[in-house]
Structures are given as structure tokens and as C-alpha cells.
Amino acid sequence: DVQSSSTNPSYTSANSWVTVGTPKDPTGADFYTLAAALRSGATNIHLADGLHVLDQTVVLDQTRAGLHIRGSSKERTIVKYTGKESMFVMFNTRNVAISNLQLDAREANPPPADDIDIHVDPTNDASQEQQMWQVIGIVNSSGIGILDCIIHAPSTMHAVFFAGSFYASSRLYQPFFGDTSSRYEEGEKETVDAYR
After folding, report:
1. pLDDT at 98
2. Does residue 127 contact residue 96 with C-beta atoms inside 8 Å?
3. pLDDT tops 70 at residue 66
4. 112: number of CA atoms within 13 Å, CB side?
5. 63, 53, 62: which is closest to 20 by C-alpha?
6. What's the pTM value of the predicted model, to 2 decimals?
7. What's the pLDDT tens digit per position in 125-153?
8. I need a labelling partner for 111 at 20 to 30 A (CA). Which of 42, 123, 133, 153 fits?
9. b/e string for 152-163 if b means 16 or more Cβ within 10 A?
10. Which is nearest to 71 in space by CA: 111, 119, 10, 22?
11. Closest Cα partner for 101 from 57, 138, 47, 54?
12. In what order do the strands lie in the sheet with 88-91?
């Protein structure tokens, strides 16, 4: 997953770029997955041309302020999301940029397996609701840049969803959307999970 920083001195500087290679071409890469580069705490992540697969939501909170994920080219640097829910969730963060790449979530949120029997009651509108996710969800954050990207989303996802502090505040959420019930279960606190 990770090359030693002693073999690649560019990783030792906080302001330098780390490179994420692909399984087909790991040459000169500091990391072989975007997830590994994010876990390392790197703030400037360069994705080499090729296919990068994500199978879990990437949560970027206040600890990831100042992060920049940049591709080599929006035509040839593809981040493919195959997981459930949202691809990226930015929550209470600032100065985050995603640039020069292609985000492909067309295979996200796969339908249930064919052998599972799902009953839809046509008299109950709630049973027909489809949960909408987002390729990039931005909640209560500032200085966010999505620059020179191509975003592919299925019909069950918004490409980009923005929500400001009014949405993140449960006291304002209820009267604004006309809901008198709490969004949270007994004892549950507001977390990034509420926006996945």
C-alpha cells in the first residue's frame, strides 16, 4: 500500500505532493490507493492517470482542512466509486479542493441481489421512496473547490449537494422543512453520519 518515505523523499515535506499510482502502473507512486494516501494524513494528493477504485465513503471533516486531491487529467484520471451511499462527504471543513479528474459513481449503491424479495406497497408512498445520495456532499463547509472535473452519477445520486449551516442545525432544520419530529434517535448526536 505504501512505499517507505526514505525511498521517496518528496513525501517528507508537508507541502509537497504525494502520488497515488494504480495497480496497473505503480511506478514511482508513494501510495497505491487513494484511501492509503488519505489515511497517511497527506494534504496534497496527486492521482496518476488510470483507474482508482473506492468502495467506501470518504469523509473529509475539520481534520482534513486544506486537502487537495488532484488528478493528472480529467480525461484519463478516473476515480470509480462502487460503494454504498455517498462517494465524498465534506462536513464542517474548509479549503478543500478536488480537481482535474473524473468521478464515476454510476456503479454506486447497487440494487439488492436478485434472490431478495422486496415488497413495495403501492398504497404507501414511503415504501416507494428512493434514498438520494451524492457523489460529493458538502455540509457546513467553506472554501470548497471542485475544479475542472467530470462527474458521472446514476439516477439515485446528486452530482454535488451543498447544505449550509441552516441544514446542519437541527433547531433550524425542523421549522424550515416543516418537520416537527427530531432527525435523531434518542441520545443520538449530530454527526457526519446524518449526511451520508
Report:
1. 97
2. no
3. yes
4. 6
5. 53
6. 0.71
7. 544 455 678 999 998 899 999 999 999 99
8. 123
9. bbeeebeebbeb
10. 22
11. 47
12. 58-60, 88-91, 133-139, 157-163
The phi and psi torsions of 143 (rounded to 5 degrees) equal 65, 35
Cell for 126?
A: 414511503
C-beta of residue 44 within 8 angstroms of C-beta of residue 18: yes
In DSSP terms, 59 is beta-bridged to 89
Q: How do 44-47 and 77-81 pair as beta strands?
A: unpaired
**Taking the CB of residue 105, how many other CB atoms lie within 10 A of it?**
26
Q: Report the chain's C-alpha Rg in angstroms.
A: 19
Taking the CA atoms of residue 18, residue 22, residue 25 and residue 31 in that order, the dihedral angle to the nearest 10 degrees is: 30
Q: How far apart are CA 107 and CA 90, in angstroms?
A: 21
User: Residue 6 and residue 9: Cα distance in Å, rounded?
Assistant: 6
- Structure confidence at residue 171 as a pLDDT band (50, 70, 90): very low
Do the beta carbons of residue 61 and residue 109 sit within 8 Å? no
Contacts of 64 (CB under 8 A, 6+ apart): 38, 93, 96
Distances (CA, A) of 41 to 8, 58, 80: 16, 13, 22
CA distance 88 to 17: 20
Euclidean distance between CA atoms 182 and 132, whole angstroms: 20
